[in-house]
Amino acid sequence: MPEGKILDEADDQEIREHGELEPRTVASRAVLALADNLVQAKIDFVRCWFPWKYFEPIPISESSLDQLLDQSYSQWPLDDLVNTLTSRGVGVVPVIACGYQRMLPQGLEPDPNRDLYLKRASIHAQLMVRHYKDRIKSWQIENEPNWWAEHEAGGWRSGFAWVHEHGFRHELLQTLNDTVHREDPSARTIINLEADAMVLDPGIYSSYCDILGLDFYPNYKISHPINTKVLKLADRVAKKLSKPVMVSETGYPSGPSLLAYSAESQAKYVSDACREAYGLGGVTGIGIWRFIDTAWRSFPPQENHFGLFDNKGKPKAAWSEFSKVIKDLK
Hints:
This protein is of the alpha/beta class. It has one domain: Glycosidases (TIM Barrel). The chain has twelve helices and seven strands. The chain has a seven-stranded parallel β-sheet with strand order 1-2-3-4-5-6-7. The chain is globular.
C-alpha cells in the first residue's frame, strides 16, 4: 500500500464498473476494486500503513489521555478498507505507531518527553487493537527499528531520540509488544528490519515480537544482475533464532529506463523472489512492495516505480506474473 495514504489514484474505468449501486465515494469504490484484484490473484494478506495521524490528527492533551483510553477515537477512517478486505478473506497486517514524521499527529515527536511519547504510543496501540481485534490478528509495531538513525538523517523522522536513543528503542518496542498482547493475547506482533545493509542483530529484536520480518531491496541501487539469493538470509535467521521469519518487504522498480530498470525485469524479480522465498523452510510469507505507484513524486526516481500497478491503475507485467506464481505455488 502507498506510504501515508489509504489508496492512490485508481483507474477510473475499473472503478466505474461497479456502477451506481456501489458506494459512491472514490475511496470506497477504490477499496472494492482493490479487493477484487486481491481476491482474483489469491493474495492472502495486505501489509499497509495505519498512520497515527489518521486517527488523531492533533495530539490529545496530556490531561485527556486517560479519558481517551476509556472513550476511544472519534473517527476510524480505515474501517471501510479493513471491513471490505477481511470480509473477502484477505488479511490485513497494519503497521502501527510508526514514527515517520508525516504519519504522526501534528507536531508530535519523542523529544523532549520520551516517557510521555511511550504513554501516547501505548494508548494509540491499545485503541487500535481493541477496535480491530475481531478482524485483525497480526500487527507490525513501528518500522525498521535498526534503521532509525538513517530515517532521521533522510528527514523521515524528527528528534534526537531516533538517533541517540539511550534505551528508547527497546522501551518503545517492548511497550508496543506488551500493549498489543495485553489487549489481545491471541494477536501476533511483527518487527521488520532493514536487511540489505546487514546491520541486523536480529536476536535483540526477536524478544519483542512473535514474528521477525526482513526487508530486502537488493537491486535498489543497481538494476542488474537481478538478485533474489539474498532472501536466503531470512532462512538462516529463522533457523538460528528458532522463530518465524517473513520477508516483510521486497521489490524491484519498473523504471526509470535511464537507470536500466524495466517492467520485464520487475516481473522477473517478483516471480523469482516468490519462488525463492517459497523454497525456504524458515520463511513463513513474503510481501511485495508495493501495490500501486503513487501519483506524487518521490526521490530517488526509482521510488516512483515499485508498484505492481502504475499510478493510473493499469496493471504492469509484474502483476500478471505475481498472480501466476501465487497460483502455481498454491
